[in-house]
Sequence to fold (128 residues):
Amino acid sequence: MSMINDFNAGTVAWTDWNVLLDETGGPNHLGNLCFAPVHGDTKTGQLIFTNAYYYIGHFSKFVKPEAKRIAVSTNRTDLLATGFMNNDGKVAVVVMNKGAQHFQYVLWIQGQTVPINALPHSISTIII
Fold:
């Protein structure tokens, strides 16, 4: 998933090409198997929600329609971040620690700071 990088590069909307595939990653017209945010087990009827489902959820739940992207930067290789100003005035900052190390970072906005823990391989959304 590279939604954070895509938004930071100017993307204004994002969707996955598929939402639901079977347990094998199909079907499709080419016969190649793929990954999806949700997989359905055709034998049991169970839905399997993958990490991608929850990753996309950070954007779909907290970034509202017509939100404007705001500048966000990090100084760590393993820390990716993007931010949005929603029409209600709330800021949503999505932060992903793509690395295997736990660390603390400082969120700084207009001279105010708050320390935040980033668990390994985690994503979080901070609403301000």
Notes: The domain at 3-127 is CATH 2.60.40 (Immunoglobulin-like).
